[in-house]
Amino acid sequence: MAISLLQKYNVPGPRYTSYPTVPYWDDDYFSAKAWIDTLKKSFNETNATEGISLYIHLPFCESMCTFCGCHKRITKNHSVEHPYITAVLKEWKLYCALFDETPIIKEIHLGGGTPTFFSVQNLEDLINGIFSHAKKAEKYEFSFEGHPNNTTRAHLQKLYDLGFRRVSFGVQDYSEKVQTAIHRHQSFHNVAKVTFWAKEIGYTSVGHDLIFGLPFQKLDDVIDTIEKTKSLQPDRLAFYSYAHVPWIKGNGQRGFKDEDVPKDDEKRNLYEIGKQLLFENDYLEIGMDHFALKTDSLYTAFKNSQLHRNFMGYSASKTQVMIGLGVSSISDSWYSFAQNEKNLEDYYQLLEWDKIPVVKGHLLTTEDLIIRKHILNLMCQFETSWDNRSNYVADIPSIVGQLEEMEKDGLVQILDSGIKITEAGRPFVRNICMAFDLRLKRKLPTTSLFSMTV
């Protein structure tokens, strides 16, 4: 890939799990009441036809991983489990009291933190507690994130019995030097063990998360990690770019020097070689940074133009309503976003007062909704169009004008009423989405908000 393109487009940019992105939420017009009003409206529109999704944030980890950007609480004290499960179930009960119908749950994702920090019994109590006020959709999809070092066969079996069929394991890289730098030690043996257990039990989709651009990571490390990964044949893979943002993550990313982190062409080469190796082993590119075998539901969704992206990442199914439960969780009613209190003790206090613990959010304008569709299309299908007037905004001509330079560089193809991202343009999908990001363009950040796009 041309050096000039890397230098030209390697700028800070959002990852677009939402539009508007969180730094551009307008809190001035947001309130918990407004959030609830939009949630009830959206729930009434779609619960009976497509159901809803739940993201449940389980924030506890026994140790700090320096690559992680998630909200977490580091502790080895497992007595925190039960009070937290009790609080999450109370939050869910407060939500259910808003609805005139029983929620039909199509998708659940347990994220963290480390969901498998929790005991098998507490996870069972959580899921059974959720369904004491809800029922499963006909075609539901439940998934969770597992740490290879503490996911037991009992975890996998119990969650399978509760309806979970998809699990993802954080691998990152198998190099001991890299693992020391990111404070994430786990052996290939542990990853292989939990992967084989999941397949034996009957999970239909086992995923591995890999990261390129980590401190001290060399091309041989990426090649070795992917060679080991292919021997386990996970059904899908995330191959993420490491976000080096020490100004956000604090001391966790200051345990190594900036020059220890691969940059620009060196970093991109890690991705390009890694991606080629994945292609050679029958993995196909799905959206941004994701790959899947043809047998996986993520690939099927991509081919059928049904792939969706939200705060949980890429999903093979879409619901208009996604409720986030737990400290720091983000919810989406389609018409608005809402985020829970980030401080654990304050989260508990709001629930003691019988308040849904939402503390910030954004009400989407008509323009926001249109731009959101275009960015979702680009992220999920690598193309978008405005041939329907309902998908048109007054800024389309200026957006197209900005994309003309990218067309000259071979990254996009501009059509009469839409664009397509070329094969060469896929690594720059974040940059292409930024051309549509009207809120970003109208108020450029004066401080560092985002990781680099390349």
User: What is the CA-based Rg, rounded?
Assistant: 21 Å
Strand content: 15-25%
Number of DSSP-assigned strands: 19
Helical fraction: 25-40%
Structural class: alpha/beta
Strand order of the largest sheet: 9-10-8-7-6-5-4-1-13
Low-confidence stretches: none
Mean pLDDT: 91
Number of distinct helices: 16
Q: Please summarize the sheet with the most strands.
A: 9 strands, mixed
**N- to C-terminal separation?**
12 Å
Q: Choose one word for the global shape.
A: globular
Note down, in words, how this protein is organized.
This protein starts with a helix and ends in a 12-residue tail after the last helix. It has 454 residues and is α/β, with parallel strands linked by helices. α5 runs parallel beside α7, α8 (219-232) runs parallel beside α10 and α13 (366-381) runs antiparallel to α15. β11 (308-310) and β12 form a beta hairpin. 45% of the residues are buried. It has helices spanning 3-9, 32-50, 81-96, 120-130, 153-161, 176-182, 188-201, 219-232, 246-249, 264-280, 297-303, 344-352, 366-381, 396-408, 429-436, 438-442; strands spanning 52-58, 60-61, 73-74, 104-112, 135-146, 164-172, 205-212, 236-241, 284-286, 290-292, 308-310, 313-315, 322-325, 330-332, 336-340, 358-363, 383-385, 412-415, 418-421. The chain is globular and about 55 Å long.
